[in-house]
Each structure stands twice: as structure tokens, then as C-alpha cells.
Write the C-alpha cells for this entry.
Amino acid sequence: MKILSGYFKTGFYTKPVFNIFLISVIYALFITGYRVFISDQTQYLLLPFRKIYPGFCVNDWFVWGTSHYHFSFSYLIQLLYYLSPGNIEAGMFIVWFIFLFAHIHSLYFLTESLGGTFRNFLAVIFFLAAYASVSLGDSITHSAILIPAFMAIPVTTYAFAFLFSGKYKTAFLFIGLAALIHVNFGVIGIAVFSLYLFLNYKEIGFRTIFTCLAIFFIIALPNFLPVLINFNKSDEWLRLSYFVRSPHHYDPRTFGITEWLETIIPVVLALWFLIVKRENKPVIEVIAVMICLFCGVLIINLLNGPLIFYTIYVWRFAPYLLIFSYIILSKALLSELKINRNAFWMVFIVVSLLLISHHGLESGLRRAVILCAGIFVFNKILQYNMNYAVQTLILIFLIVIGNGYKGIDVHNKIEMMEWIKKNTPPDALFLTPPDMEGIRLHTHRSIVVNVKSAPIGVGTEMYEWKNRLEKITNSNYIENMEEKGFQLWEKLTEFYLNNSPEQIKNIMSFYNTDYFITYTDHKDFHVLTDSGFDKVYQENNAAIFHLSK
């Protein structure tokens, strides 16, 4: 209590760091929520879980030691396991929240480095809360899970803040750390940061440039080397990996026109404000470099050119174009004396149309009104000398009324998964729908195949993944299907649900499968029990079957 009273006596509650902590809590509860064992975690956790838990998925076909290159993430999860015995999910949540706090704090630091104030930072957070989720880079800006990309985001943001602050060596130190966490951010970051330095070599000097590059590569090499050694040995399996399974990483045409407009328009508006005011030359240069790189990759992709590593993950930096734009727009809209009415109405009309086109009339208008009301409120705040605490409470109020509670789920307890873990042998093999995730992580049981967990990085296993998907869905040449990415998931699941009892038996016999899981809308669901299957469990829309003896 003495410590707390000391904080309040010294005015700690008026300091940005405490308010950023409160914003992080609200961001977690009303913007992202938190989940475990879903989405990308179903692949990234396979390697550490195999090392942590004896007999984990003993009949699985993956050679997980080479299925992905996020070794630093694997070591972190193993460390969390030993630091929090029996509570690894709670440990993952704590680390996730630490990085979420770092994400919010790094945005404040970036805002300051571009000449903004705490009030501008609040406006940026509000842009993220009310607008950014509909544009490119949604999964990075609003990550509800602990994955390497989410961990690399705040480190990269700090790197940009140091770059704009003129602390070049520290900037390259942080982009090197980002590469150590997630190599994609290093590959793209080194290109953007280096081009920026060489554009300003007269002021910076070649000695500083080479020192910066040396710092980066010393830190990044432990994660870089395995990728450089194994990458591009076979362009064919890379195309299978990205064109079929993950075209959103590579092909810009997978994004809709609305998503592109929602990303491009704020950037264009921000650049227009910068050019008119003739300020912030460094951020103009960085945005220009990134746009040129994006355009170059777009041309390569449209021409169906070589699939090099850089072209796959260039879109990782699309959210930064937006974040820079939000900071610039907040400065353009807000001033110490009055709101820039022309800028306000321009942004209001454009944002309203985009939100309506994406969310529909009712939801889009509600978001647009809340967003613009927020800007108006922040402008009023500027007219009074309100402390950080009051400003933060206003932001929190606006976020709460504009976003529903997203929930915090630290311990996933799904009945079906718990039943499998308690009632099936550890070496059991399951045939599951292609879109079903989490069986391995929840139950520690092996599956024949699913779409999400693909052995990206190993050519022979990618073909095994493809063949297994074709086998369990009775389809041919999935690489030639019109549907790609998430649409392919839906199509393959549709094929799976059309399998006849005899086809299911053949697949189970071929892979020596013990259990068969399907959804209740399976074509022959009601006759499965009359066709040699015993239904051993059913929950909501999923059921587990075992072949009759």
C-alpha cells in the first residue's frame, strides 16, 4: 500500500507509462481478446511441444524439426514450460500481454519520434481500434495469440522509432532482434533500413552505415543462416507452399479491392499532408522506399516471376505504412488551437465510405461516427490542460463503447478435446476434417493431415501434405484448383463431408487410422452408424466415430 500511495503522491498515475498499461488492458479486452491453441499457434507450437512432452503425437508423419525456422520461439516456449510447470498456457498469456504492452508503448515512442504528443498517440490508438482492422495487415496489428510475428512487431516498431530519432546503430540493433524473433521482419527490415541510410549517406557517413549493417548481421545470423542454407533449393515446393496454401503471403491479388483501398487511401492522405506542410522528410523517405519495394514485388508477382524470399513476405510491412499514416493524420487533424476542418471532413467522408463498404451500412456508420467523434473529443482535450489520466480515461471510454468485449481465454477446455485425451490411447491416429485445428495441441494425438499445419520448408513433406489432402478428400491436383488459401480450406472440407462410408473406410484402412471425426452436416452422417461405424462421442456440430469390431 505504501508503494501505491507513493505512486499517487508522486503523480505516477499521470505518467504515460501507467496510462499505456491501462490502454493495453483495454486493448486486450476490447480489441484483440486472447486465445491459445488456435490459428498459427497450431503450427508454431508443434516443434516445442514435441520436445517438451514425451510421446507427443507419436504416430504423426511430420518431421517437425525442419517444418519451420522459428527456433527462437521454440526455445521460448520450452523455457516457459520449465518456469511455469503445469501452467504453460498461463505463462504464454503473461508473455503475450508483455509484448502487447510493448506494442502499445512502442507506438507511443514512434509517435514521439515523429514529433507527436501523447494526445496524438491516443488518436493513433483510436485509429487502430476503430479503423485498422478492416485493412491489410489485420492479423499483425490485432493479434490475439502468441506467435513470432506478433512478438516481432513491437521490436520492429522500436527500430523505426530509433531510425527516425537518428539513433541508427540502436535502430539496426532492434531490427536485428526482430529478425532473431521472426526472420521475415529481418529480411524486409534490412532492405528498408539500408536503403534509407544510403539515401542519406552524406549526412550519416559510410562508416556508420557499415557499422549498422555489421550490428544487424551479427544478431540476425543465428536465425538467418538456417533459412539461407535451406531456402530456394526447389522453387516448385515453394510455389506449392505459398500459391496453394498461403497465397495471402505472396499474391497481392488475393486481397479484395476494398482492403486495398482501405490501406492505400490513409497512406495517400498522409503523404499529401506531409508534402503540403514540407515536414518529416525521414518518414517521407521511408514510406517512399516501402512503396517502391511493394510496387517492385507487385510487378514480379503479376508477371509470375521468380519466387524469391523477399517477395513472399513484403506485405509484413503494410501495417507500418498504416501506422505512419495514423500518426501523420492525427497531427494533421489535431492542433493546439482548432481542428483542421478541411482535413477532418476529407477524412470523415473517405473513412465513412470505406467502413460502410466493408461492414455494411449500420455497422460502418456506427464505426465512422465513433471514429470521428473520437477525433472531435481529442481536439477538445487539446484546448484544456488535462492530465494523462483524464485523457486516457476518455480514450478507454470511446474504445469500450465502440468495441464489444472480446474475452480472455487462458485455459482452453474444449469438451471433445478433453474426451479424446482421457478416452483414447496415446498412439491413436485420427482422420479429421481438413479445416479442423488444434487436435494435436489439445489432445497430444496424431492426425492424418489438415490444411493449416503444412511442413513449409521441406519439399518432400510438402508433397506428402498435398497427397494426403487429396487422398482424404478424394480430389486430384489441388494445385490446379481455382480456389486458393482460405477458399481452398472450405472447398476441401466440402469434399471431405461428401465422402461415402465406403470411401471413409478405404481412407482409414490406407492410413491405419483408429478414429474418424466429422461434422454433423456430413452427407451420410445419419447412416454412418448403420455402415460399420460406432459413434463414441458427439458435441454440438462434431462427432467421433470408431470402426465397429
Q: What stands out?
A: The beta strands are 429-431, 446-447, 515-519, 533-539, 542-547. Residues 1-14 have pLDDT under 50 and may be disordered. The two ends are 66 Å apart (CA to CA).
